[in-house]
Amino acid sequence: MNINANMGTGGARPPFGRKVKRVSDVNAMGYNQAPAYPFPNGAGLDQPQPTFSQPPQPDYMNQGSYNQPNQANQQPMPGQQIPPGNYDPNAFMNPNAIFQQPIVQNMAMQYTQQMASTGATMMKKEMEKYVPISRLQYYFAVDTKYALTKLGLLFFPFTHSDWSIKFEQDTPVQPRYEINAPDLYIPTMAYVTYVVVAGLVLGMQNRFSPEQFGIQSSSALAWCLLELAVYSCTLYIGNIQTSLRTLDLLAYSGYKFVGIIVSTLMSIVGGTAAYYATLGYCSLALAFYLMRVLRSQVLPVTTHQTSYYGETDSGYGNKRRLYFLLFVAGAQPVLSWWLSFHLIRYTAPAPVLP
Q1: How far apart are the C-alpha atoms of 154 and 150, rounded to whole Å?
Q2: Is the dihedral of CA 306, 311, 314, 317 positive or negative?
Q3: Residues ≥6 apart with Cβ < 8 Å to 35
């Protein structure tokens, strides 16, 4: 209840010239003040509450790509990625949302690529200790033109005149640019073709079984490794210094499979006579090829050298190199016959009469 001290008992208005006293009750002015403490039992909750305007935000809050957390329309949906440069205030509240941040994904991708590159480098370094991958790349650097020309050289080496191998900065030129350089592409393909042709011939003789592929491939590979071991031991025991590498010897000894394939196929057409005639010519051509191409690598230029006993001889050590060269060339016809004669010399059993 409002009490006005200036009003009389009759409630008349004071005269015009009289000073009006200040009203001490603020409720009389129409301002409803919220209670300082809540009313018990929920009383007074239906009273209107005062509203206060939100203070203006600083300029730096409205600049850039700052997202206000109170704005519901700017909150990202679950699983939605925030564009680069935006800040998500709820990202660190959810552990799974951290991995959806673009900067975290980029860091994880770079770290994974770095780890993969490091692992590949270490694996390559470890494999180089056992398998010379970098050297094998040289022996397989061929193209179609080289393969056709090299096959023609193996069958007709008598028409070739230049047998030197070119070098570039103390490194042999790749086989695709040097016809006289050894390669492993033709021996590898000839070895695989030999196993297939052997299965074909055995099938025509009713002797084929799936196990024959393993038998023919393993026996041929074993003979090649044995031949390579014999050559290496001969060079070591004879103390023969040459520029030949182990892979060079493997490549030169693998060329015999080309003649074996042609001889075996000719036996299907012309029988045993055609087989021996073709095998003889191919073996002679291969021996001639090896004699000419290995001559520059096994036989050095004749110079005056001093032996262990102090004797001077221009041909010191050349005899051993010559014997090794003849041994390599002469072993090819024997091994060619040994790896193919069991496919030809076969007599079908006579049928048993009832």
Answers
A1: 6
A2: negative
A3: 44, 47
Q: Please state, in angstroms and rounded to a whole number, the distance separating the CA atoms of residues 352 and 93.
A: 90
pLDDT at 330: 93
Nearest alpha carbon to residue 261 among 154, 157, 346, 183 = 154
Per-residue pLDDT tens for 284-320?
Answer: 999 999 999 998 888 765 444 444 334 444 455 688 8
Q: Provide the mean pLDDT of the chain.
A: 75
| Assessment of whether the complete model's pTM goes beyond 0.70 | no
Q: What letters, b where the CB count within 10 A reaches 16 and e where it falls short, cover 168-190?
A: eeeebebbbebbbbbbbbbbeeb
Q: How big is the CA angle at 246 (ends 241 and 249), to the nearest 5 degrees?
A: 90
Name which of 281, 256, 270 is nearest 338 in CA terms.
256
CB 252 within 8 A of CB 121: no
CA–CA separation, 171 and 181 (whole Å): 11
Q: Point out the residues of the chain with pLDDT beneath 50.
A: 1-3, 5, 8-9, 11, 37, 39, 42-43, 60, 64-73, 302-314
> Residue 254 burial by CB count (10 A; 0-12/13-18/19+): exposed, middle or buried?
buried
The whole-number pLDDT of residue 81 equals 54
Q: Rounded to the nearest 5 degrees, what angle is found at the Cα of 284, between the Cα atoms of 279 and 290?
A: 125
3-state SS of 199-255 is HHHHHHCCCCCCHHHHHHHHHHHHHHHHHHHHHHHHHHHCCCCCCCCHHHHHHHHHC
DSSP helix/strand/coil, 167: strand
- Return d(Cα 17, Cα 79) in angstroms, integer: 77
List C-alpha distances in Å: 120 to 106, 107, 108, 135, 350: 21, 20, 18, 18, 61
**What is the reported pLDDT for 242?**
85
Task: Answer yes or no: are the C-beta atoms of 185 and 139 closer than 8 Å.
Answer: yes
pLDDT digits (tens, 9 = 90+) for 20-33: 555 555 555 555 55
- Whole-number Å distance between alpha carbons of 91 and 97: 5
